[in-house]
């Protein structure tokens, strides 16, 4: 089967990442942690397969994820954790909006990320 016919397979569990709201890759793009230049070559994963990121989504529509070990947010600086929770949760909510929107991919990121991209790459 051609790679493009396989869908987006999770690098961790091997299952299809069928929904944008389950995508670690698109969440990282929306919050500015994946450069648009490498989006198409970056690995895909389910959010739940990446607990180090998923633990920062704080929304009643997203069941909490625990991350054991050194990156457990309960072991980190509370101010850092608040900032990560704010950013990652806003990014996940943006993914939920995008699932029902018809926008070009360049408009997916949060506004502050789009502004930084315009400054870096031009309009």
TrEMBL record:
It comes from the Bacteria. This is Uncharacterized protein. It comes from Posidoniimonas polymericola.
């Amino acid at each position: 089967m051609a790679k493009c016919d396989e869908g987006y397979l999770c690098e961790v569990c091997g299952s299809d990442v069928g929904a944008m709201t389950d995508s670690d890759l698109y969440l990282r793009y929306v919050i500015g942690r994946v450069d648009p230049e490498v989006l198409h070559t970056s690995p895909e994963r389910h959010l739940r397969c990446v607990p180090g990121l998923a633990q920062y989504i704080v929304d009643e529509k997203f069941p909490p994820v625990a991350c054991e070990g050194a990156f457990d947010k309960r072991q980190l600086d509370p101010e850092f954790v608040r900032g990560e929770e704010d950013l990652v949760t806003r990014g996940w909510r943006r993914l939920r909006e995008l699932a029902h929107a018809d926008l070009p991919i360049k408009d997916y990121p949060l506004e502050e990320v789009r502004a930084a991209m315009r400054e870096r790459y031009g309009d």
